[in-house]
Structures are given as structure tokens and as C-alpha cells.
Amino acid sequence: MRTADGVPLKISLQRALVRSRIRALLLVVPLLAFIAIAFVLPIGDMLFRSVDNRIVESILPRTAVAIQDWNPNGTELPDEAVFEALTLDIKAGVKARTLGRVARRLNYEKPGMTSLFRKTGRRTKRVAGPPYKERILKIDNRWSDLNTWRLIRREAGALTSGYFLASVDLKTNDRGEVVWQSEERRIYLTLFYRTLWMSALITVLCLLLGYPVAYLLATLPLRTSNLLMILVLLPFWTSLLVRTTSWIALLQTEGVLNDVLVFTGLISDDGRLQLIHNQFGTFVAMVHILLPFMILPLYSVMKTIPPSLMRAARSLGATPFTAFVRVYMPNTVSGVGAGSIMVFILSIGYYITPALVGGRTGTFISNFIAVHVSETLNWGLAAALGSLLLALVLALYLLYDRLVGIDNMKLG
After folding, report:
1. What confidence tens digit (pLDDT) does each residue in 81-121 have?
2. Minimal CA–CA distance to 275: which of 263, 288, 284, 287?
3. Mean pLDDT of 36-55
4. What's residue 183's pLDDT?
5. 219: left (phi over 0), alpha (psi -120 to 50) or beta
6. DSSP assignment, residue 408?
7. From the centroid of its chain, how far is CA 283?
8. What angle, rounded to 10 degrees, do the helices at 279-302 and 240-251 form?
9. What phi and psi, each to the nearest 5 degrees, are found at residue 155?
């Protein structure tokens, strides 16, 4: 069979199918471009920053090359050529005002490197020629420490594992061995553990509080349920910062709740409760903020369950409780899964609310990621922590898929 223009019908259909696919692809190109720019590129940049170590070799290029011939396992300092390269690099770094960057990078691995490079940078102006080694050693005796040179040699590569080691409370010692950080510097594994169990408990609390509310909304008459649904959605119309600071006003020692308890005589004025700037404050504020994200998936699934199922179970002799547990609840598993994974993933990455109400014991790992990005400017460590958090979320997501199944998750 052929078309009116003489082209075989099979070929004409194939061409039409190709044209339709091209049109469909062109329609989604803007969305793909937005996803690439807003999500893929930032995540890729974060992953790369967690191992990027080009700052040393870019600011100390001569030293990075010359020190490769030095034996770090020996007992002798580098030769004159390495000291000459270091002097020239430091002079160039002072002139370009980039010496502080490499000093700060090395200071992450060994405290005191910032002051060493600043002092050396100020005094290398007097070093006009050889012997470079003798003159550099006179500037500061820390240049005679083999561990200083071992650190520079170890960090002269383009990639590093130091950020990831630091994010799990490990480090590389002067002999190149991976060891634990000192006790007072082991904080990140504790923070990861705290973030996980607090997020899990927040999810459970949201489920316990949201399930009855969603059931009530799904079983009430439409006019009444719509009115109550407005109350559920009302928090979305209020700023997150306003909702969080409202809890501070309510829960602080001189706040509304403590004043009511003192007024009713339940507690004394000297025995006011500490309800904020701790884990309790984080639980209360985050459950309040994330509760709608649990109610809405549950409601959308419960609304599709026919009421006749419960009546059929009752007619077959089941008690109301048995009918609810054995007939109704299994049909809501998809909503429970959707709401739980949504609340858990949202809570594991929250940082504004824990920062305001969590105090010392209620902060998450995301708070320290924000600190390293905006305050300490240690973007490599922040990227490593963020990468581990991303990997952790993906691992939990895959575990959920294996145990429950993503196909069983429904948002409505």
C-alpha cells in the first residue's frame, strides 16, 4: 500500500512517528535544560569540590613539581631547588594576593600553617637570592619540620581524600596513615547519627498525628472536610521563619507555655521548663512544619478507598477495630509510604528550624554544612558532608524500594 504521493505506507508511518518524537523532544528541552542548570550542574559541582585539591598546585606550582623528587620517608629536608621554588611561589602568591588561600587549605590538615605562610610571605621580600634554604629556615623553624614538607607533598596533587576522611572523623597522620581524629574533633559521625534518628522519630510522630487527621478528612462530608483541609493547608501560607520564631515565643523559659504552667500552679516560677534550644524544641517545631506533608498523601489515598469495604467486613462478622486494622489500614500502605519518605527526606535536610530552636543538642548535619559554606568557607568539607548526606538518602531510598517498593507509593 502507498500514500497519495506514492510513498509506501510503512515508510510514511515511520516518518510521521519520527516527526512526532522530535516534536515531543523539543517540547521537553526547556525542562531538561532547567533540570540540568538548576540541579545536575550544582550537584556535580558539589561532588567535584569534595575531592578537588588544585589550589595547592595552582598557587605553589614550582614547589608542587620540585617536591615530587623528595623522599618523604627519609630524614633529610628537601634540597635547595625545592626551597628556591617555594620562595618564588610565595613571592608570586604575595603579589597576586592568593597566598592566604593555600595557607587556609593546608591549615585544614595541620593547624598553624596559616601563620607560617603569612610570616614567610612578609619576610621573603628580603630573600633576593641563594642560599634559599638557609634563609627560609631562618625565617621560621617550622620549615625545618619534616611533617610540614610531607603535608605539602601530600596535598600537591589535583585530587584529595582529606575532605571525605574529615567528614567521617578520620585524618591522615604525618606518616600517611589514616587514623581517627582526636576525641574533641570527632563530631560528624555523631551528627549523622543524630540526624538519622531524629528524622526517623519526627517521621513516626508525623504519622501518628497525621493518620487520624487524614482519616477524619476522608470520612467526613465533603463540605466539612474541605473546611478542615483549609486549616491543614494554612501553615503553607505562613512564612517558615515566622512559624519557627512563633515556637520560640511559646516554648522559651519566659514564654507563653511556661507562664500558663506557672499561673495554674503546675510548676513553680523557679522551676520553669527548658523547652527550646534543645532536641525537644526541634521535635515540636519540625513536626508542626512537616505534618501537612504526611496528611496530604494519606488523605489522597484514603479518599479513594470505597466505604463499602468496611461495611463488607462488618457484615462478615469483623469488629470495627478488626475491620479497620485488617481491611482499611492495608489499603493505606501506599499513602503511609509516600508520606513517610517525603517527611523523612525533608527533615534530614532541614537546617533553618534546627538552627533556630535546636541549640547545641538539636542541630543536624545540615547546620554544619551551612556553617562551612558561609562562615568557615571550607567548601571542600561542606561538599564532602553534602555528598555523604546525598549518598545516605539514596541508600535509604533504595532500601525503601527493596522492602516496600516504589511502585506501591502513591501521592493520590
Report:
1. 888 888 888 888 888 888 888 888 888 888 888 898 898 88
2. 284
3. 86
4. 85
5. alpha
6. G
7. 19
8. 130
9. -95, 10
HSE-up of residue 235 (Cα within 13 Å, Cβ side): 17
Residues whose CB falls within 8 Å of the CB of residue 41, separated by 6 or more in sequence, listed in order: none
Task: Say how far apart CA 387 and CA 393 lie, in whole Å.
Answer: 10
Q: Which residues contact 196 (CB under 8 A, 6 or more apart)?
A: 348, 392
Tell me if 285 sits within 8 A of 353, measured CB to CB: yes
Cβ-contact 25, 32 below 8 angstroms:
no
Q: Which three cell numbers stand for residue 98?
A: 592568593
Separation CA 173–CA 180 (nearest Å) = 9
Burial class of 298 by CB neighbour count within 10 A (0 to 12, 13 to 18, 19+):
buried
239 backbone φψ class: left, alpha, beta (φ>0; ψ -120 to 50): beta
pLDDT in tens, 268-323: 888 888 888 889 999 999 999 999 999 999 998 888 888 888 888 888 888 888 88
d(CA 384, CA 346): 20
Confidence of residue 193 (pLDDT cuts 50, 70, 90): very high
Task: Place 6 in a pLDDT band, splitting at 50, 70 and 90.
Answer: low
**Residue count of the chain:** 412
Say how far apart CA 150 and CA 74 lie, in whole Å: 10
Q: Give alpha helix (H) positions in 36-141.
A: 41-49, 54-59, 61-66, 80-96, 99-109, 113-123, 132-139
Residues 389 and 206: their CA atoms lie apart, in Å, by 22
State the distance between the two ends of the chain, measured CA to CA, in whole angstroms. Answer: 46
- Of 366, 369, 206, give the one whose Cα is nearest residue 297: 206
Amino acid found at 317: G
pTM: 0.82
The per-residue b/e assignment along 349-388, b for 16 or more CB within 10 angstroms, e otherwise, is bbbebbbbbbbeebbbbbbbbebbbeeeebbbbbbbbbbb
Task: Determine the Cα–Cα distance for residues 239 and 227; give it in Å rounded to an integer.
Answer: 21
